[in-house]
Amino acid sequence: MADKKELRIGLIGYGFMGRTHTNAYKRLGDFFPELKHKPVLKVVCARNKERLQAFADQWGYESIETDWRAVVARDDVDAIDICTPNNMHAEIAIAAAEAGKMILCEKPLARTVAEAQPMVDAVEKAGVPNTVYYNYRRVPAVTLAKQLIDDGKLGKIFHYRANFLQDWTISPELPQGGEGLWRLDNDAAGSGVTGDLLAHCIDTAMWLNGGIKDVSAMTETFIKERVHTGTGEVQKVGIDDACIFHCHFDNGSLGLFESTRYARGHKALYTFEINGEHASIKWNLHDLSRLEYFDHRDESIERGWRSIHVTDGDQPYMDKWWVPGLSIGYEHSFVHQVADFFKSIEDGTPCSPTFKEAQETQKVCEAVLNSAKSKSWQETGVDW
Ligand SMILES: NC(=O)c1ccc[n+]([C@@H]2O[C@H](COP(=O)([O-])OP(=O)(O)OC[C@H]3O[C@@H](n4cnc5c(N)ncnc54)[C@H](O)[C@@H]3O)[C@@H](O)[C@H]2O)c1
């Protein structure tokens, strides 16, 4: 490791994503030894000093800051990693770009298209490397789906279907806002399941199947009022609890998407299925190492759905891990994203999805919400 160039990380926010990203930085050098850079856990930032210091000690950060502006201003930080709630992404990213820092930002890029645009402008003006953690692209079975589609195995695509189902907000007693519950507060989150869950489905869908042209959507807020943690008052709930939309893709295929936090029994069931003229593929997050594949060109007597266990060295990313037959998990998608980001710096190429690409997903999310509100079809304006 001695001759590697340091890439000094400033992590803002140490919650769920702060841990997955830190884990990725810690694993990187061991499993991607060819990289010329090594991450250095320089500083982590959040507001509660005591808990932050405990996190820094546990995970191995060299220092702490309680104001993110101090992290952005530090000369000993090369890259800012944004793991805060959605309402803070824009301000931090713009300041980081202006300070010439590389930026790795959590999804969704921002709460709205208008809020995201200056972020895109700022990274492009500063010319700083940037990426957004739509990490599901880098689950090996999902990356393999991309490979099969790009190889033409499916032929012309007719249908794209995706769901992202959870069940954790069914209780009306759950407050909105505050630690762990900012996703229920529209000011912090920008939307409900659309920006939180469907954004993932939309990013994967456009990556696999091209741009989404127009959408028709409906949303529902099942619990209309909740206590707000910040004010202590019962307040109107502004987020969408559930969202269903259908759409046209630029390639002529039809899309059908559903997300909810009211599907009792489902914790994080992200699934997609794609039907083409020759073949179909299916994937689900609960069995993330498998890609289901049906090819109509197989001999009819043995034709059927194959369950491809994506663990072999010639399948995406799997040469980096164990031996054929042994699975990897959720956390590895973040290791892959960080590895690809480091590689992109070394190659001088963009690490997809960039802020610009994530802005296209933002446009679809916004068109979905506008469609539900206006009860009309909406053009997305996506340029994929
Ligand atoms: N890629 C994915 O699959 C995925 C999964 C979960 C969350 N996310 C995204 O990651 C982001 C964070 O989500 P999370 O689940 O980790 O949230 P979280 O609530 O677990 O963590 C948020 C962190 O932000 C910190 N924070 C809040 N305000 C701050 C401030 N003013 N200054 C510094 N730190 C502050 C909190 O202390 C906390 O550590 C969100 O944008 C979310 O949409 C992405």
UniProtKB/TrEMBL annotation:
Tagged with keyword Oxidoreductase: yes
Record flagged with keyword Transport: no
SUPFAM superfamilies: Glyceraldehyde-3-phosphate dehydrogenase-like, C-terminal domain, NAD(P)-binding Rossmann-fold domains
GFO/IDH/MocA-like oxidoreductase domain mapped to chain residues: 144-281
Residues in Gfo/Idh/MocA-like oxidoreductase N-terminal domain copies: 7-133
InterPro entries documented for this protein: Gfo/Idh/MocA-like_OxRdtase_N, Gfo/Idh/MocA_oxidrdct_glycsds, GFO_IDH_MocA-like_dom, NAD(P)-bd_dom_sf
GO molecular function, a single term: oxidoreductase activity
A Pfam family of this chain: GFO_IDH_MocA_C3
Superkingdom of source: Bacteria
Keyword line: Oxidoreductase
Entry protein name: Gfo/Idh/MocA family oxidoreductase
Source organism per UniProt: Ulvibacterium marinum
Taxonomic path: Bacteria, Pseudomonadati, Bacteroidota, Flavobacteriia, Flavobacteriales
